[in-house]
Write a structure and sequence with these properties.
By secondary structure, the chain is of the alpha/beta class. The protein is built from 14 helices and eleven strands.
């Protein structure tokens, strides 16, 4: 028993002319089926990841899929939400449906329309992914939560602003190669490392270039039972591991300088896959803020606590480094439409593993790690992927 990714579709992330989630879903739903080589009649269940929380008055978004593909009218459709890890939560729901024997193929869509909402309202909506009782008044909205994390980390381990700027410039350089990326512009290290009118401080020590983008977008994946995939599908990307680990929501109840839940998720994923970090070819990780990517280096086992900066400073996470991190450009360049992000990360990984990544294609892409988190490392999802067909 196992589950594979057998097809996908991905919209251009950015400021979309689409009115809302309905139109974004329509951009990817039918195309993902075509890419998988299946028809609507082959889909046994639908799961839609959408955070919403005020971005749109149109909720109940799982039921919008049948408007895009009318042949899916009578297929069970369910909406899933788990903060910024909503896309991965939808994928996990689809996987469980297959593993239970209730479905052979499942369509998973992640979607969010964010740019129609005023920026100050976006910050408040995203605070729904924090513990409002204690963190609602963080300066800079949700960015303030990670600004506090960066402040605590710098106080304990020293100022790492230059290393954060290197992460930002790396991911923007990678995003140049990604046709789906929101920001296809190479911001060099000097710009990212300098506070200026175009790159002001947003929260704590974090500059604008340390923060991911407010984006619209959708991504879709067809999941198939392993046996079905190996018999029928032109491509099959197998989940060697799929793990979720949760942590306390309030930062006051845990360390601000390490992502313990993420570390435990990675450890469980390595054990489930029978692998170690050195067995991975590349990783797509959740760089909602550059400080998050640096802490995730430590969580995935690339560096000890407090030493994550060495991974970017020494070029380990560069596109041509020992373990490329975010060859897609990550959330920093690709964009972060909340509900779509986890699905998008898995699409980017599957494209690499199947040799379908175009200009983004890495020389070596045998196994992939994917890390998607909800809140500040509260809901932690790790996948280990490998092509088997």
């Amino acid at each position: 028993m196992g589950v594979c990714i057998t097809g996908w579709s991905h919209s251009k992330f950015g400021k979309s002319a689409s009115e809302g989630a309905e139109q974004l879903i329509a951009e990817v739903a039918r195309d993902s089926l075509a890419h998988a080589g299946v028809g609507p009649e082959d889909i046994d269940a639908i799961f839609v990841g959408a955070f919403n929380n005020g971005f749109s008055k149109q909720d109940f978004q799982a039921s919008l899929v049948a408007l895009a593909v009318p042949e899916l009218r009578f297929v069970p459709a369910t909406r899933v939400e788990n903060a910024c890890a909503t896309g991965s939560a939808a994928l996990h729901a689809g996987m469980r449906e297959i593993e239970s024997g209730r479905a052979g193929r499942v369509l998973v869509i992640g979607v969010e329309k964010m740019t129609a909402t005023p920026t100050h309202e976006v910050g408040d909506i995203l605070l729904g992914a924090s513990y409002r009782a204690e963190e609602a008044h963080a300066p800079g909205g949700f960015a303030g939560v990670f600004g506090n994390i960066a402040d605590a980390y710098f106080q304990k381990f020293g100022n790492k602003s230059e290393s954060l700027a290197r992460i930002a410039s790396k991911n923007h350089a990678n995003g140049l190669l990604n046709p789906y990326a929101h920001m296809q512009k190479d911001f060099g290290f000097a710009f990212c490392n300098t506070v200026s009118e175009k790159n002001p401080i947003v929260a704590g020590p974090l500059r604008r270039t340390d923060c991911s983008l407010i984006s619209d977008g959708a991504a879709a994946i067809v999941l198939s039972d392993l046996d079905i995939a190996l018999r029928n599908d032109p491509r099959a990307v197998f989940f060697r591991a799929a793990v979720q680990v949760n942590d306390f929501l309030p930062l006051s109840k845990r360390s601000r300088t390490s992502f313990e839940g993420a570390r435990k998720a990675w450890a469980k994923a390595y054990a489930q896959a029978g692998m170690a970090v050195d067995d991975l070819s590349f990783v797509e990780t959740h760089d909602c803020f550059t400080i998050a990517e640096m802490l995730e280096y430590e969580a995935m086992g690339l560096a000890k606590e407090g030493q994550g900066a060495s991974i970017i400073d020494e070029g380990v996470s560069a596109r041509d480094g020992r373990l490329p991190i975010n060859p897609s450009g990550g959330l920093k360049s690709k964009g972060h439409p909340i509900g779509a992000t986890g699905v998008s990360q898995h699409v980017m990984a599957a494209m690499q593993l199947c040799g379908e990544a175009g200009d983004m294609q890495l020389k070596t892409a045998d196994t992939a790690g994917v890390f998607n988190m909800g809140g500040a490392a509260v809901a932690n999802y790790v996948s280990v992927l490998e092509r088997v067909g």
